Amino acid sequence: MPSAFQQSVIDEFRANAGKVGGPFAGSDLLLLTTTGARTGQPHTTPLGHVRDGDRLLVVGSNLGAPHHPDWYHNLLAHPTVQVELGEEEFPTVAVPAEGPRRDELFARVVAEAPGYAEYQAATDRTLPVVVLELPDPQTPALEVTSLADKLTEVHTWLRGQLAQVHAETEAHFAARAAHRGAGAPPPPGLGLQIRQRCLAFCQALEFHHTSEDGHMFPAMEGYHPHLRHVFDRLREEHRTIAAVQSALAELLAGVAIAEPDRFRGELSRMTEQLTAHLDYEEAEILPLLAGVPWPPRP
């Protein structure tokens, strides 16, 4: 639960399209909603931010306290967050910057908000800089009017996230090979960016398949009993994919992915199996959902 003061800031932010008075008058604020690492419940926190091109930068300063703020621990456990910025609200994947890139972005923040340098000087810990990507204005939003559209939207997001993780992983291995070729030690493990994106993907995939197994498939079977073999196959594929997902989740449990080669192998398995599964599901199920309105009518 936010403190009474934080709640008053949240309420004022939402009532005035992001404008807040008092000590925050004129400040660039956003509301960050994370999922509790232990509770699984949503937690909203007002945070200052610095805009850097197509991304927002937030710093886990905790006013220079010796420990990271709770919202930072939450986003390490659940990387998908909700951002409120003025009248705009959108989901994104929160990615802490690392190494030289973190230092570069922190300098960018301090140039605009010098107080963060004072917070850094007050503590021995390195203040994390978290990157929140803004929605791409060039990407047109899919018009969702049916359950078929909604399923396509979810599948498109899953495919896109998986492709991005795969591309970033292959780029990492190319960098490792280049280091070896130059006689230099390869970079250790895999970075937080790959971890955060893959964890967000895995959590979304688990939620999606659980929802299908528990709600959508049973309802559809009632209307289409002759397609029971299709739903049986889809459920079996869910179980097969869940085994790969569990292997990935085990590798993502720590902040650093310590077994890059094993991760790469499991990711390739996921790509192969999920791509085939989504293709089959769309071929068999989308035509049945084209006439079902979304959002559901009361």
UniProtKB/TrEMBL annotation:
Gene3D superfamilies: Electron Transport, Fmn-binding Protein, Chain A (2.30.110.10), nmb1532 protein domain like (1.20.120.520). It catalyses: oxidized coenzyme F420-(gamma-L-Glu)(n) + a quinol + H(+) = reduced coenzyme F420-(gamma-L-Glu)(n) + a quinone. Residues 148-289 form the Hemerythrin-like domain. CDD domains: Hr-like (cd12108). Signal peptide: none annotated. Belongs to the F420H(2)-dependent quinone reductase family. This is Nitroreductase/quinone reductase family protein. It comes from Streptomyces microflavus (Streptomyces lipmanii).
